[in-house]
Amino acid sequence: MAAATASAPTTMSDGSFTDKGKPTEVRLSNMNAAKAVADAVRTSLGPKGMDKMIQTSTGEVVITNDGATILKHMAVLHPAARMLVELSQAQDIEAGDGTTSVVVLAGSLLNAAEKLLNQGIHPTTVAQSFQKAATKAVEYLDDMSIPIDLNDRESLLKAARTSLNSKIVSQYSSILAPIAVSAVTRLVSSSSSNVDLRDIRIVKKVGGTIEDTELVEGLALNQIAMSNAGGPTRMEKAKIGLIQFQLSSPKPDMDNQIVVNDYRQMDKILKEERQYLLNLCKRIKKTGCNVLLIQKSILRDAVTDLSLHFLAKLKIMVIKDIERDEIEFISKSTGAKPVADIDAFTEDKLGSAELVEEHSQSGAKVVKVTGVKNPGKTVSVVCTGANELVLEESERSLHDALCVVRCLVKKRALIAGGGAPEINVSRLLTEYANTLKGKEAYCFQSFAEALEVIPTTLAENAGLNPIAIVTELRNKHALGDKNAGINVKKGIISNILEENVVQPLLVSTSALELATETVALILRIDDIQFTR
């Protein structure tokens, strides 16, 4: 009986690499799966990119062209393809924008790597060369970047507008961009190296149009003021209390029933309840509190009609159903400390504001707290839209614009958009590859060519001739115009800085580094083992 032989990778006499066995199949399968994911989002790159309609398992419909959102909703089963989904999420966390670009770039690098493997170059050589090329590319991007100052509002606006121009809400970029810039610049000082976007709260309300979106200096609440018992909906010189206990009659931990067969006993029970609630309300009023925020309760009613009636008589404005995860933000914004027990509810726990008022615009009600004592710690944005779909996409777009401004706080430099940096880096890397020897030169050359996928895709999605456009773009760069890019709106090549198409340096550099890292990781995998 013949012994089964497994084919092993062999190294030829000239140092090239042939691998006809299982590792090649696994690697090819991984690369094809990852490339399929990249092709799926490729059409949504750039200002003229297409949008995707996603129907979730619950029947909810999402319309978006944000790479991270599309991939998050995709049912990706292949483990290598899932790496690209995680790649776009990593880019979303690091830079917030460029989530589509990073996946398209990774797909292009995998294509280049496949050709190199077919030529017989070892996967490890390809992976190492690509990582060296990425480091070199980041240096070139640094060289062509324009340093900025955070006080230069115009530059920040240009970057935010460029981010918004590729979104569904691009026609409203003149409204959303200033909001994003103002929100982030409120929270930073000249020495800040980062911004926590959790300090910017976006309140979504269906009603009106995207044009009605506004920045609130202070706090905006999704909940509405309780006015059914005749309570106030506007309060000047507000003293704000934030409570986590319930304003309803106490309830034992165990379920039990009490049978009352005497009406006097019944009256006594009701009287006790009234007295208990009245005492609670009076103690709250005694501290000087005139605006009461009540946390949502699961165990029993957070507030009853009777206690609402007492609070209305005491001229206290009530807002109930505050979510548990909102408590920290509200506390930070108003200075009110959350209180879990009536005995601990004292005057020093109260926050203060000039005005708390319920606003109603186009059918959407929102409570605004303005004139807080120490502004600058948090900021709120009221995001409005005609329907749920537009509103969701508007919020995602605004988040991306906020991330772009945050990128400029992290790394204070701008770079041209419109495919200009990619072509410039590609040209410089090709020149550098000519100074190298052996397989590394081939790998650098392939890496440089792979970068051209961004301008090619931009041109394709805008309905232009990609070959003609990219050739003309290369020509312009070869003649020394390193800011020449694709002007998608006019369908020509022009100086992209004059068109105000700019993006943060961090978006481009992190996209390059993360994409290369993922490709190197996929290349190094030669087998998949399934565990029981």
UniProtKB/TrEMBL annotation:
It holds the Pfam family Cpn60_TCP1. Its main location: cytoplasm. GO terms for cellular component: chaperonin-containing T-complex. Gene3D superfamilies: GroEL (3.50.7.10), GroEL-like equatorial domain (1.10.560.10), TCP-1-like chaperonin intermediate domain (3.30.260.10). It is found in: Cytoplasm. It comes from Kwoniella pini CBS 10737. Residues 1-13 have a biased composition (Low complexity). Keywords: ATP-binding, Chaperone, Cytoplasm, Nucleotide-binding. The keyword Plastid does not apply. The keyword ATP-binding applies. Heterooligomeric complex of about 850 to 900 kDa that forms two stacked rings, 12 to 16 nm in diameter. GO terms for molecular function: ATP binding; ATP hydrolysis activity; ATP-dependent protein folding chaperone; unfolded protein binding. PANTHER family: CHAPERONIN. This is T-complex protein 1 subunit delta. Residues 1-24 are annotated as: Disordered. Belongs to the TCP-1 chaperonin family.
